[in-house]
């Protein structure tokens, strides 16, 4: 694990991307829009391309309050021009993992 990572699955996701040939994403970095308004702290982000990647564990969908906060945060990022890629445990192995790496690569290339 690396300093700043908040879950083992975030580490697994980051390593999947790097092993797939992608640049190392920033980890849990506070992010602001052009006017200085706080947007949130995404799990992983590529700031130059305005791409963020969020690992969605089951607790995100089981807790109604967290679910609503997650939606509001995604909307803030979208309004500021960021693209969010949502990832679950099923995306970290086999063909879905390869598809995820390809999707992130396409997002980074414009």
Task: Tell me about this structure.
It is a single chain. It contains four helices and six strands. It is an alpha+beta fold and 110 residues long. The chain has a single domain, classed as VSR Endonuclease (Endonuclease, Chain A), CATH 3.40.960.10. A hairpin with a 5-residue loop joins strand 2 (31-32) and strand 3 (38-40). The longest helix has 16 residues, at 64-79. The radius of gyration is 14 Å and the shape is globular. The mean pLDDT is 92.
CATH architecture: 3-Layer(aba) Sandwich
What's the CATH H-level superfamily name? VSR Endonuclease
Total of helices: 4
Provide the residue-averaged pLDDT.
Answer: 92
CATH class: Alpha Beta
Q: Report the order of strands and helices.
A: HEEEEEHHEH
The count of β-strands is: 6
- CATH fold field value: Endonuclease, Chain A
Largest sheet: 4 strands, mixed
Given as residue ranges, the uncertain stretches (5+ residues, pLDDT < 50) are: none
Radius of gyration: 14 Å
Q: Bin the helical content.
A: 40-55%
Backbone structural class: alpha+beta
| DSSP strand content | 15-25%
Write the layout of secondary structure elements.
Elements: H1 8-19, E1 26-27, E2 31-32, E3 38-40, E4 44-46, E5 51-55, H2 58-62, H3 64-79, E6 83-87, H4 94-108
Parallel strand pairs: 5-6
Antiparallel strand pairs: 1-4, 2-3, 4-5
């Amino acid at each position: 694990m690396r300093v700043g990572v908040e879950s083992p699955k975030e580490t697994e996701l980051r390593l999947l991307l790097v092993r797939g040939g992608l640049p190392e994403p920033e980890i849990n970095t506070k992010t602001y829009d052009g006017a200085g308004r706080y947007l949130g702290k995404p799990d992983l982000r590529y700031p130059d391309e305005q791409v963020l990647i969020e690992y969605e564990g089951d607790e995100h969908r089981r807790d109604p309050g967290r679910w609503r906060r997650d939606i509001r945060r995604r909307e803030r990022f979208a309004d500021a021009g960021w693209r969010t890629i949502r990832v679950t445990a099923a995306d970290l192995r086999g063909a879905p993992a390869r598809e995820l790496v390809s999707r992130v690569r396409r997002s980074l290339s414009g």
